[in-house]
Design brief:
- Helix content is 35%, strand content 32%.
- The protein is of the alpha+beta class.
- It has 3 domains: 108 residues, Apoptosis, Tumor Necrosis Factor Receptor Associated Protein 2, Chain A, CATH 2.60.210; 90 residues, Potassium Channel Kv1.1, Chain A (2-Layer Sandwich); 55 residues, no CATH class.
- Strands 1-2-10-7-8 form a 5-stranded antiparallel sheet. Strands 3, 4, 5, 6 and 9 form a 5-stranded antiparallel sheet that branches.
- It starts with a strand and ends with a helix.
Length: 279
């Protein structure tokens, strides 16, 4: 299957597909490094009318069998008149999305997300049952130990053990602002992410080993990459050894979502500025 105008940016995939024969299969498209999406077109001849019907199918599956997450995609296509059709990751079964007598070219737009089994939204504003405190450099955030434990096995191990923090009812999070801790609480209770300050939330997710939050932060960061932010974000990822973010940035550059020539000019500017500051 011929494809064009491929855009792969974080958890977003956009591509145009062209049917040239009666049986076509697209390349396997990697989304966020953890799932694969593929399109198939099959022409079926109808004996009754002596015409052919074109069947368009897709499949969506996890790349790692040991991945305990469940993923979903929202699929849209203006040419096929499909608006936000949802699929869950499975064993790679093909699913029919369109049946038509004339299909030569069509567009596919996919947005992937992680499926969350439960939410603690009802406890978000609770003040009576809170029994733990996350302390940052300039303030603290009150939370429920049970919610923390359900969100991270690292936190669960800490809270269920004989750690000093458990007995004192709080834990200090060095180098973290109260705003970042609030963003962290917003996610574990409401599954909401901020529009700014994602880098610090990503570091918390990495430290407490919450892969779903890590991936969501990475997706949101790379979805708005520019030449300048790519350089800044790559420097941040390398400094803090956030491999998930490093790979996502490199994938965006490889797919030409960001042009290397534009990045080169920015790197040159940075180098010149650094040289001027040297004694």
């Amino acid at each position: 299957m011929e494809t064009s105008n491929l855009v792969q940016r974080g958890n977003i995939l956009q591509v145009n597909c062209y049917k040239r024969s009666s049986y076509e299969v697209s390349p396997e498209f990697l989304i966020s490094g953890c799932t694969t999406f593929q399109v198939k077109v099959l022409e079926v001849k109808m004996q009754s009318s002596h015409t052919a019907m074109c069947h368009i199918l897709v499949r969506f599956f996890k790349n790692c069998p040991k991945d305990n997450n469940t993923y979903s995609i929202t699929l849209s296509s203006s040419k096929l008149s499909i608006a936000e059709k949802s699929f869950l990751s499975d064993d790679g079964t093909w699913h029919l999305i369109k049946e038509s007598d004339q299909v030569l070219a069509f567009d596919i737009s996919v947005v992937m997300d992680t499926v969350h089994i439960s939410s603690f939204e009802a406890l978000y504003d609770d003040t009576e049952l809170v029994d733990f405190e996350l302390r940052g450099e300039d303030g603290s955030v009150k939370v429920h130990k049970a919610v923390l434990a359900a969100s991270s096995h690292v936190l669960k191990r800490m809270l269920s053990g004989s750690w000093r923090e458990t007995k004192e009812g709080h834990v200090d999070v060095p180098g973290t602002s109260a705003q970042t801790l609030q963003h962290f609480k917003d996610y574990i209770y409401l599954r909401k992410l901020p529009n700014t300050g994602l880098e610090q939330v990503l570091l918390l997710a990495s430290y407490y080993m919450i892969p779903q939050l890590e991936q969501k932060c990475v997706n949101k960061l790379v979805n708005s990459l520019t030449a300048q932010t790519t350089c800044d974000l790559l420097e941040f990822a390398m400094k803090h050894k956030v491999n998930r973010l490093i790979l996502a940035i490199l994938e965006c550059v490889q797919n030409r979502c960001v042009e290397v020539k534009d990045m080169r000019s920015f790197f040159s500017t940075c180098t010149d500025n650094n040289c001027e500051e040297l004694p």
